[in-house]
Structure formats: C-alpha cells, structure tokens
Amino acid sequence: MPEQPRLIKKYPNRRLYDTKTSAYITLSDVKDLVLARENFNVVDAKSGEDITRSILLQIILEEEAAGIPLFTTDLLAQMIRFYGHAMQGMLGKYLETNIKSFVDFQKKLQEQSQQFYGESSSQMQSDMWSQFMNFQGPAMQTMMATYMEQSRKMLHQMQDQLKNQTRSLFTSIPLPGFPPVEQAKAPKDTEKQG
Known about the structure:
The protein is of the alpha+beta class. It is built from 6 helices and 4 strands, in the order βββαβααααα. 64% of the residues lie in helices and 8% in strands.
C-alpha cells in the first residue's frame, strides 16, 4: 500500500503546521521537502481545500525574486496569454513533458558520471554538470533555440488545424471573421447561371 502523503495544514494566521513533526514550518522548510522529493499535501485548516499548488507557486515566486530568475519577463507574459486560451491544457502538458525529459536527461548524465568516476559526492556531480553546461553552453543554446523554434511552429500548426477543424464542424453556423460557406460559394454559382 503506498505511503500517504505528508500532511501540512495552513492556518488563517498564514502559519504552516507539519502534522508529521507536530511543528510549525516555513516556506523554506516546504522547499526543502520538495528538494528531498518528499510526497506532501498542503490543506487549508479551516476549509480542508488542497492548496499545495498555491504554496508551490509562492515558493517559485520567492525563488524568482531572490536570485537569478528562471523565467524571463517575455516567457511569463506568454504563459499568462495562454490562460483561458483553447491551447491552455495542451501547453501545460507540453511544459510538463519537456521538464520531465530534461530531468531524465540530467539523471542519465549523473548516472553516467557515477559509472565513470564511481560514487562521488554531490558537489563533484554539481561541478561536472556546471563544467558540462559551460563547455556545451553555446551548442546547448543553439539546440534549445532550434527546438523552441520547431516547437513554436508545431504549436502554430496545431492552432491552424484546430481552426480548420472548427470551421469544418460549424460550417452552417456563422462565425465572426469567417464568411459562411454558402456565401463563399455563392459567386461561383451565380457565374454559372449567368
């Protein structure tokens, strides 16, 4: 039977209470749980609502404000534009899949370094990753830029396909900005009759 997630309660006074340790904790402690890959849920103590995502977003906000931001202003603006858009769910899945691929790549790189160098400290692995990124930086940037451009084109193609599918599904219903099919064919029919 899988282990139940660790339960953290958030009280109206904004304090977080870890039921496993029976102690109040901070956002920094929750971040440590994330880094330790601890399975946990944060719930509102009053309503019982799961607010884990909200707490994780607060941690991201603190991290973005504290050091070198992970997200550029342009990227954040692009993400905001997807809220309420037909592609919102697809973008979330796309980002999740790509982050997982990146994490898998990093894990394989760490496993390979352990095979070559044996059991080494995490500091050595971190140094190796930094050296790899410094050495491969320009190549990785080019590869990522190409990948992002291909992804952007693919996303636009999917949007066009969705528009075309929508048009074909609703040909009898007038859509703003799109002439009904009957009107588009009407001039050709009148030319044949005249």
